[in-house]
Fold:
Amino acid sequence: MQDIVKSIIQKNDSKIVMVVLDGLGGLPMHGKSELEVADIPNLDMLAKNSACGLHTPVSFGITPGSGPGHLALFGYDTIKWQIGRGVLEALGLGIELKKTDIAVRCNYATIENGLIKDRRAGRIPTEKSRKITERLQKKIRKIENAEVIFVPGMEHRFAVVLRFPAPLEKGAADIMDTDPQKEGKPPVKVTPMCAQAEKIAKIIEKLIKAVTEIIRNQDTANSILLRGFSQAPDIPHFEEVYGLKSVAIATYPMYRGLAKLIGMDAPAVTGGMKEEIDFLKQNYKKYDFFFVHIKKVDSYGEDGNFKEKAAEIERFDRILPRILALEPQVLIITGDHSTPSLLKGHSWHPVPVLLSSAYVFGGLCNSFSERECVRGEFGIFPTVNLMPLALANALRLKKFGA
Amino acid sequence: MQDIVKSIIQKNDSKIVMVVLDGLGGLPMHGKSELEVADIPNLDMLAKNSACGLHTPVSFGITPGSGPGHLALFGYDTIKWQIGRGVLEALGLGIELKKTDIAVRCNYATIENGLIKDRRAGRIPTEKSRKITERLQKKIRKIENAEVIFVPGMEHRFAVVLRFPAPLEKGAADIMDTDPQKEGKPPVKVTPMCAQAEKIAKIIEKLIKAVTEIIRNQDTANSILLRGFSQAPDIPHFEEVYGLKSVAIATYPMYRGLAKLIGMDAPAVTGGMKEEIDFLKQNYKKYDFFFVHIKKVDSYGEDGNFKEKAAEIERFDRILPRILALEPQVLIITGDHSTPSLLKGHSWHPVPVLLSSAYVFGGLCNSFSERECVRGEFGIFPTVNLMPLALANALRLKKFGA
Structure:
């Protein structure tokens, strides 16, 4: 369907703002969900006058990770475009990946007598971690035909990118995580999961050996654990598909990384939602499409903190008038998935969405909540359909067929 | 899915009437849509006792042309079966196309000093246009290996069919329109859009040259503009798939053409909806499936005439009892797409539908409107699913699987 959409794009000077309250959807605790408890008069009023519904990022019953959650919002088929965690991590740390790259998430860890004592090396300070990573980069530059790029991260985290001279076979990065996710166990042996990954697995073994050689005598960060081995996908760019000059406004690296992967601008924005809205306002003339990512709604949900999740949505409600004042032709407010405090994690529940434009009915929902959105004019629909709806409401799609 | 449906067809003597109020769906102006404003007691009563919902002809956000809108209603995959405008036009003018044909929509135009002065040659009278077209046919019968068929149309319009001795390659008709859609410009040079179209492009060039040679000294119709180059699709017939002897009752050529393409009978019916219902009644014993096309609802929507669009729906409401009196086993009332007066054109909004049969719930909608249909038992669903629902409600489908 993205091909069809691409074939009927027309440009105009409309603005589309998509606000993603990460993990927005919830579940009732004591009878009401986070959205139902929150005091959100601005969102309620907007929902009354908007097209509302619920969207399913991957499919019914499927709990999406952040990658598929966002790719679906941007209109990409989440089954076709499966983005590895290593790729997301590396992009989030500011590395521009090439199609010949394999990216890996890494942790410094403490190992004693062959067993993992601390998977996070005592959460060593970022500054110290950075110095180790830089030292590794000085000493390790190439393994076999792979250029090795070390990318410093926060605390114990960093990423490694293996850059090859030519594109790799499909499956080349299908390697088991070496992090067993538990202390007291040895690291998992580097294990290729298909024949195509055998070559890379050998290089990874050599890499681990070379790194350990250098850091084995350090106090805490004396080893590394690797996971999320993944190839950079050859995914079409957002602007190329939709003709929208676009920007991601996000404080967290991973979401900027995801946006960069599809060619969005994603400059570093620090602070919280206030600073994000400042950025939106200051750069409003420069772009057609704005992806505004509000992280903390999800964080509180993951913590099982029902009250603070509701309070964070209330804080967004208070800042919403600043977005409304910009009068975008299309304003979407939704999430990338649900994160019910009850479940302390992502869930499969469809995500409430409202779309405000001059070409909707409205009048079907009394407030902005999961149960009210069921009654909305969009019904329950696959998330990938949200971008075509956004484009249609911005009058950016021509007729299909004669 | 059409293959599955075909495999479980069973015949009986039930009647299915599908009334298509072209461009039925609307949007609120001053708070209410055309359907919400219209005084339609018969439709409201019927909606109360019917299965209601909204259907999406192509996909969310996609505005369908008349071709995909109708093909979806007839249960055909609109992505798989993309029908060119030239094909629709030629069929509508009464030509039966063969699989080796390429059809083109043509206009007589006025050109001065190489620039288009009038794309419609002053909307020359149909009688005059017909004479010119007949003269062209007499003088031009063959170009290279293509038989050339000139088909007279209304006013400045006509069609050309190139009939080849053998089936053509896919892409053979991918040729750019020569009509730039603007006066003051020269006609677009005949441009093949892929290698497979180069041969036909050469023939088209020769055709234009031959035609211009004959008409160049006329006052107004001194040149031609061509668009919608398209191959006749090898599409399965409606009766072959569904086992329904079917007839299209339509006053406009294009809709009859579309129906003929899938093998429906489509005799010329002149007049308006009254004459169409007369025809329905007179031929009720002869067919199993009746596609009744009411054009003017769309026409008023395209004109942005909210009041007359509502009035046209009211006129249909008044005539509806004559259809109800026939007591078809299944009666469907819907549109092929929405044409909100607000947008003065086709739109992407899902189309309200009601299906009346002995096997529905009803009781969910208080009237027949877009917002009431959101609450209906069909929900929001792809238009291609309407035919299986019609067949099921006519008890014309066997169980699937053991």
User: Anything to note?
Assistant: The radius of gyration of chain B is 22 Å.
